[in-house]
Amino acid sequence: MSNVLSHAITETIHFGRKPEEGDFHIALTGTADYIPHMGVVALTVHAHNRDMPICYHFFVNHLEDVERKRLEKAAEIMDSPLEVHLIDDSAFRTLLLSDGVAAFFYRFLVAPAIAPVADRVLYLDGDMMCRGSLKYLRDLDFQGNDVAVVSDRKEELQMKRVHTKRYFNAGMMLINVKQWMEENRFDEIVHRAEENVKRVGNRLSHHDQDIHNEMLDGKCLYLEKRYNYLYNLDRQSLFKKQPVNEDYKNQVIIHFAGHAKPWHSWVQDWPVVKEYAAIQKASPWKDVPLVEPKGRKNLHQAARTARMRGKYGEMVKYYVRYFGEKI
Description:
The protein has 327 residues and is α/β, with parallel strands linked by helices. 35% of the residues lie in helices and 17% in strands. The chain contains eleven helices and eleven strands.
């Protein structure tokens, strides 16, 4: 089975101390503009795991000089190795759906990149925040499974849609790298992605999460939801039930899986976001500005949030812009 991603990583750039045999490996993926968010995730991990040696891996498609300096500083702050794996997006041509975004498939590269140095790796999305110790994941017995994961929202509906026994959120995956490579999962998942494009006729469909679930059905160890707690910063319309979040302080890994992210300007009053922002403000990315609402979805969310906070002047301003863009 040919694998078009065998040479997708063109270069690996090293920051910080040298990796050591006892390091726990953590991987994050994203386009170049996502590096600030990935960096903050790594710093939240460090804040709650200072006694654990960790090696971080960032998989990105480009690295500007300004980000090189920030990553060098972050590696120094964490006293950790930080490996940046540069990716050639053109290698993903046969996998892409109608949006043409290769970044959704970068995590396919995590296991083969880590295989020479470690038997396990923790994959994390860039819209997360760590609030607790990861020793449990570092020492976890896979019990013969390929991954340890957490159920996704509306799991039963998702299971029926893709015809699997369970359905997980792929934003956090503790990967059994040794077994993954022995079972040729890297080749298999790339092949499945290519077949998916042929099947849907290049229409925008679900990305790699469905493919991971189909491939790993029956090979997953399911963990407590606090290891990938789906925390919703979105606001529903006035007459819909608002999302209920459990206390974020009880979670180990928080996943801001909704439309609103902690770097959006209109959610800065949330206590959990204030904690995230405090870590960013003490980081090499402290000068990266918040993202202001732009486009219909963001403006609608900003208006609803302002309404719930009783800031009616802001609400009107955002709704005027929202209806202006709608016309």
